[in-house]
């Protein structure tokens, strides 16, 4: 436990920054119009300000109370997100099945334990099951295997 | 009585062998497609809708209705068991449904959801049957100012649904609205916040956002923490679906309240099930004597909202059938089916095509019953899925999410967005910001802006319009009340929890043991 | 040498019709840049089975809504010009570009007009409870009491329809945008908007029940569905001819022979008795065209609406 709720203060700071960013972008790039005919910029600009206000209130509240330690994980988010990114990068050039293998392999490493046998089985299983469901049953046009070179 | 005659005729139509078969087929397909995480309800319906093209109009509508229930129901299954909401209404179910699943009460949650849905739908159907012209008429009194006020109220209410400070809830709503504004502004054709990416012209994909913030974030937090052996194998047997007496006792009023709220909101085109679900949750939390149970597996937390969103789904037919204005995207599809077959919706539909109308209404009931029967054995299957070791389950779930995201738009952009929102969701978990209000803000934000701007144009720049028009003024006042109440009660909740903790350390708290859902 | 040249010319000359002969070589995709079950989508879905029968290949409707039809249109402009991806869109094709300056395609050059399918006319409707019985009364009153006109969205044909009327009548009317025809009709029903340029099918039953009043038909002629309603030209408002049409386009570079074939096949469907009977209740007036004629029409309308937009101050 911390004496002050640093997590929430950090959260408040994020909100202020994000809100300010939104308002700045809106005011600079999009016409504001007037109140009777609001331009595309007015509403988001207002929201940005409101968000920043929330951030300040949150920060002030956090100042006056103790806070718990935040729960920050490093490995799981890395592998899970890397797995998703791999799928996104692989599916168009190489097709569905390589993408499936990529995501299954990479994201399962988030467990920090590599189980080659069960991994191989699930890759095989999913490579059969997913195309069956999506391409065969639902009729979606997803290329299974491609070689772009 | 003419009404009974009509109902009987309708039942006859609904129970004809063809219609029964197609209803069943629709419900089955819908459920299966709806369960797949990553495929939203709307995507599922759009995929299956062409199947109805070659059927008779009545049969086509019945099958479409079956598909629709099925997908909605399948969506709740994914929400409860995997914390993967397909719609904002599902996100509310996640709040207490998912904790219930983690406590080994997933079967109960799924079963009770079906019951609540049935109840809500029946309530809505009755209203639909008796009051269509009256309701349609009064719905016309809601103009842009009123819609804005309603949405604002819904959003403020949604910020109260989770534990923790109301400020975080409101901030989450605001962030959600901002995400919702990405894309082309339909009032001025200016593209906002797209930073040159063509795929963002239409805005951020709802599926990508929901899957990222709920599903991926959940997986990130659960990896290496959840052990499948934590779930008692006994709990996945058929017996485990049976709710306890306590559950049943607690469910009646939430269902009733939920159905009332849902029926009201469903009749207003465009607002719909999502707001109804959130409001119902907020109301239940407010009237409960033990609000701290919410978010930890309180059965009222799913009974009320599920009943509400199903009632809303039913009453959404009222503006669709009588005004010809679809209340939601699903209704638009239904309307399309009618028009393809040359049936013109409008107040005369009921008198011109009685078999169609009453047949459809009775088939709603039949469809719901079919779903009830269909899903009981399926529940066992789904819950058994949870006993798969997590390290095998989660990569597969991620795969489904990615495929689902890819199929809505056939561009890897959506998948990248899932990753982005997964990170955002993860950060939100660290800072303890609630996800459900963000989702509602995302969906309602752009609509709210549209109504706001239009109200301002119509009032020629006068802000007071929201307080001068009677209906709008009432709603704004209610919103203010909700806001004050929530800020006040979040503080008092904090104090109550502290005293409870202090009390438990001391002499022991007799009252809480009975209320607490034990793991 | 001569022999070779002759052979070459003959081959090249044959190549065009040969390509048309091979068309289509696979599934044809009719891209509809609107969500399923709108007017255009329904028409495309009615068209599809006839084309499927004629071509012997699957013809599927692909919905790509967004940006007032511009998203789907942009996607087709970038598709392969093999005739397998066709755009089925409305006159938003010529109105939206007048208002959206930064389109990722040029509507004059990046797509080839293939065929016109048909059109619907617009009627000017007011709430049933309003006390104006003629259009002139409405216009006159607007000088003292400014009115609101609903549209189905910025850049839609209903928007331009009402702008054309405003330009011609010099009435004091402010435009309010709604999202789609449905909400626009509801706005007039509830009285939030005072007038709207609707299609007959959008107005629906409300015309017979009296919840909506029709003041005029936009254009030069009266329509069969409402024989007693005067046209705006009759009443003295010039330059108010506007219809919502549906047309088929192909990506630029599509072989002209293929374009001609698709055009001919579509025209054949438009003459089909059963097809006519199915779509007429939906208020369509079918019209056959040639690719060149349609292209000229499209070009002319692009210019016309751009000019109107500039004049009314709504362009960018």
Structural class of chain C: alpha/beta
What's the helix-strand series of chain C? HEHEHEHEEHEHEHEHHEEHHEH
Helix amount of chain C: 40-55%
Total number of strands of chain C: 11
Q: Tell me the span between the first and last alpha carbons of chain C.
A: 58 Å
Strand content of chain C: 15-25%
Shape of chain A: flat
The biggest beta sheet of chain C reads: 6 strands, mixed
The helix count of chain A comes to: 5
Plain-language structure description:
The complex is a heterotrimer of chains A (149), B (519) and C (316). With 149 residues, chain A is an all-alpha fold. Chain A has two domains: 6-63; 75-137, no CATH class. Helices cover 68% and strands 3% of the residues of chain A. Chain B is built from 21 helices and two strands. In chain B, strands 1-2 form a two-stranded antiparallel ribbon. In chain B, strand 1 (183-185) and strand 2 form a beta hairpin. In chain B, helix 6 (144-158) packs across helix 10. Chain C has helices at residues 2-22, 39-55, 70-77, 92-99, 135-144, 157-169, 181-190, 200-203, 206-209, 256-271, 273-279, 291-312; strands at residues 28-32, 59-63, 85-90, 111-120, 122-127, 147-151, 173-177, 195-199, 212-217, 244-251, 285-286. In chain C, the strands form two sheets. Chain C has a six-stranded mixed beta sheet with strand order 2-1-3-10-4-11, sandwiched between helices. Chain C has a five-stranded mixed beta sheet with strand order 7-6-8-5-9. Helices cover 44% and strands 20% of the residues of chain C. Chain C has two domains: 27-120 and 244-312, Bordetella uptake gene, domain 1 (D-Maltodextrin-Binding Protein, domain 2, 3-Layer(aba) Sandwich), CATH 3.40.190.150; 122-217, 3-Layer(aba) Sandwich (D-Maltodextrin-Binding Protein, domain 2). Chain C has 316 residues and is of the alpha/beta class. Chains in contact: A-B, B-C. At the A-B interface, helix 1, strand 2, helix 2, helix 3 and helix 4 of A face helix 7, helix 8, helix 16, helix 17 and helix 18 of B.
State the main characteristics.
heterotrimer, A: 149 residues, mainly alpha, 2 domains, two-stranded antiparallel sheet, 5 helices, 2 strands, 68% helix, flat, B: 519 residues, 21 helices, 1% strand, globular, disordered C terminus
